[in-house]
C-alpha cells in the first residue's frame, strides 16, 4: 500500500528555462493513493512519468500561466487525448482565471476550438479557493506577481506544505503559511529591485518562513545569478538554521 505520509517530489525547479539536468518548476505531491501535479513547467511531464502516469493523477494545480510553470499542460493535453491513454474522465485542473482559453489559444490551429475540456476539467482559482482532492485539501491565495498568481497550502495526514508559486513577499503568502510544516518558497532574485518586485530573494524567503512560523524551509526556483548553495546559505544565515534546496529528482517526506 502507498504511504499515507505527505511526500513532495521535485520534478524540476529551474528558472526561467530548463537546464540539461533540471526541468522548470513542477512538483508531485502524494499521500496514499492521492497524486497532485503542482505546476507543469517545461520538461516536467517527462519526469512525472518516472512516478505516475498522467491519467493516474487526481488533479493538476497551476500557480500562474508563465511558461516555466505551465508549458507542459500543452503536451499533457496531447498525451491524454491522442496517444496511448484511455482517459476515463477529464483530469481536474485548478488554475488562474483564463486557463482554459489560454490553452485553447495555443492548441487550436484550425477553424474549430481545440477541446481542452475533454482533457481537463478546469476550475478557476480565486483568493481563498479550497479544493478537496482525495486525501488532500488544497487552499489557494492570490499573491503578488506580474500576472494573476496563486500560492497553495496542501494539507493531508496531519501535515501541511505551503508552496509560494512566484510572488514578491506579501501578507497573503505569510498568512497562508502560518504554522506550516514545510514552506517551499521561490528564491528567484539575487537582489530585490527598488520598484515592482515580483519575486523573493533568499533573504525574503527566510523572512517569510520566520514570520509564518514555518518549521522547515525549502528554497526553489533559484535564479540564474545564484547557485543553490548561495540561496540556502543566505536564507539560512538570516533564519538561523539549515535551509534545504529543491533539487531535481529529490523526494522529501514532510
TrEMBL record:
One family name in Pfam for this protein: Lactamase_B_2
Domain Metallo-beta-lactamase intervals: 23-221
UniProt-listed SUPFAM superfamilies: Metallo-hydrolase/oxidoreductase (SSF56281)
SMART domains recorded: Lactamase_B
Domain of life the protein comes from: Bacteria
PANTHER family in UniProt: METALLO-HYDROLASE YHFI-RELATED, ZINC PHOSPHODIESTERASE ELAC PROTEIN 1
Name under which the protein is recorded: MBL fold metallo-hydrolase
